[in-house]
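If your schedule permits, I should be very grateful for your opinion on a structural question. The matter concerns a single protein, recorded as an amino acid sequence and a row of backbone structure tokens. Could you please explain, in whatever detail you think fit, how the structure tokens follow from the sequence? I set the record out below, with my sincere thanks for your time.

——
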Amino acid sequence: MNLRRKIADSPRFNNMVERLLAGYIRFAYRTSTWETQGFEAMDDVLRTNEPVIVALWHQRLIMAPYLFNLELGQITSLTSTGRAGRLAGQIYTRFGMNTIAMNSRDRHVTMSRKILGKIRDGFSVGIATDGPRGPARVASLVPLIWARASGKRVFVVAFSANRVLELPTWDRQWLPTPWSKGTLVCYEWTETVPRKATDEETETLRLSLEHALDDVTDKADTLAGRALPPKT
């Protein structure tokens, strides 16, 4: 094992990085002004002790602890078993979230069983719908599978800010900078996923969820005063 990998795998090193990143996220949040919009419907569901499914784009994942009211319920976030996924999972744990790490080689049925088990235990579940490797802003079928099997309501969320750090990742992940103007936005995705959907119906629903995620993200960007990219 080379020195670089040994350092990256060191529990002490990872603990330090987790603590620093969690501290940075808290500092950026506390020093910025935030406008929230649309969370009332999700909060009302949580007050009835019903879990929900929360979906967002991987680019906006870093602010997940502030896109769900942890005072109203518990949430489990799906992460990968890679280094970046493990790091993200440990950061979220520091905010009071739960995580399930899934290997890319795991079958979807295995993954879904674990998630549905958490939903039955009363946990909401969150997923970066284009993660963990993309392609960026292409929705997977996973939230549809969970919605169909659980019958739980689906909410799409996003954060934005007028000033961000853009990381050199596959999705150009965003970190808000301190003393920014930020926005947190939530919409309910109101489509029903039939138990026995055809391939065409499933693709239509996938595209509907994808469009809802784009819409909520564009809304967050607009509220933060950011110019939207041209539609392709």
